[in-house]
Design brief:
Layout (H helix, E strand, L loop, with lengths): L4 E7 L4 E3 H22 L4 E8 L4 E4 L2 H5 L9 E9 L11 E8 L2 H7 L2 E7 L2 H16 L10 H26 L6 H6 L2 H40 L1 H9 L3 E3 L1 H9 L1
Parallel strand pairs: 2-8
Antiparallel strand pairs: 1-7, 3-4, 3-5, 5-6, 6-7
Helix pairs in contact: 1-4, 5-7, 5-8
């Protein structure tokens, strides 16, 4: 039976990937690809996959080609994959690559993959461990400090929805329970009249609660669903705080500015 080891990790923070950062990450891939060649005599295939906003993509082995990418407003780079591929062409997904690193800024892909994630697989545990350590060191340098992880805004939306639900039900219920008998009437009423008025007040209060309680529940549930499903707070944070690929033309524009 073939011995195998692996590492897998996701990062939930947004990032800013610059050309110098990508060079260092690619150097890590190539260095550990060289170790595989020295140990096995098999040279892994190095591949960069660049994905654009218009759903187009291309694959290249040349890092400089990525640095010449247009990456312009309206058709930005939304995904970048770095792969150290096995050259044997094995059809098994598990054996198709030695290392796979993905960067995402596309909102749909963020739901599936998160901003950054990598998977390493090889026969040597030391290779996987050392590769993972070096790769994490480079990844941590591009993470945006002080930004909320992507799961936090979703929790905030859920919490706000729950609070809105509880408060709406409480306010509706409390407003319907207010006394319909004024203090002036109570002062002038005798015992028999007071009992009758209090009984009437209780009956009206119960009718009001029965009439408004379920609409209040439905209204509160509706607001809870809005916050959980539409995630307005999370969407606002995603719009303001997002990942960027400062590569190619975008990098030149930022440098010139």
């Amino acid at each position: 039976m073939e011995n195998r080891a692996g590492r897998h990790k996701n990062f939930e923070q947004h990032f800013i990937l610059k050309e110098d950062n990508l060079r260092k990450i690619v150097d890590v891939f190539r260095r550990f690809g060289t170790k595989i060649k020295e140990e096995t005599g098999i040279e892994p295939t190095f591949i960069l996959r660049v994905e654009h906003e218009d759903q187009s993509f291309y694959e290249t082995k040349d890092l400089e080609e990525v640095f010449q990418d247009e990456n312009s407003f309206g058709n930005e780079i939304t995904g970048l994959v770095v792969i150290l591929e096995r050259p044997d062409g094995n059809d098994s997904v598990r054996k198709r690559f030695y290392a796979f690193l993905r960067f995402n800024s596309d909102r749909e892909n963020l739901k599936r993959f998160g901003p950054i994630g990598f998977t390493l697989t090889y026969e040597s545990r030391d290779w996987c461990s050392l590769f993972s350590d070096d790769l994490e060191t480079q990844i941590k340098r591009i993470l945006q400090r002080g930004r909320l992880p992507l799961k936090i805004p979703k929790v905030i939306d859920l919490g706000v929805g729950m609070v809105f639900f509880s408060v709406s039900v409480s306010l509706f219920t409390m407003s319907m329970r207010k006394s319909v008998v004024s203090e002036a009437v109570i002062e002038k009423a005798n015992t028999e009249d007071l009992v009758r008025l209090l009984a009437q007040n209780l009956l009206l209060g119960r009718e009001a609660v029965n009439r408004w309680f379920f609409p209040a529940i439905l209204f509160g549930m509706g607001m809870l669903i809005v916050f959980v499903e539409m995630r307005p707070i999370a969407r606002l944070i995603e719009f303001v705080c997002r990942s960027f690929f400062l590569l190619g033309r975008r990098n030149r524009e930022v440098s010139a500015f």
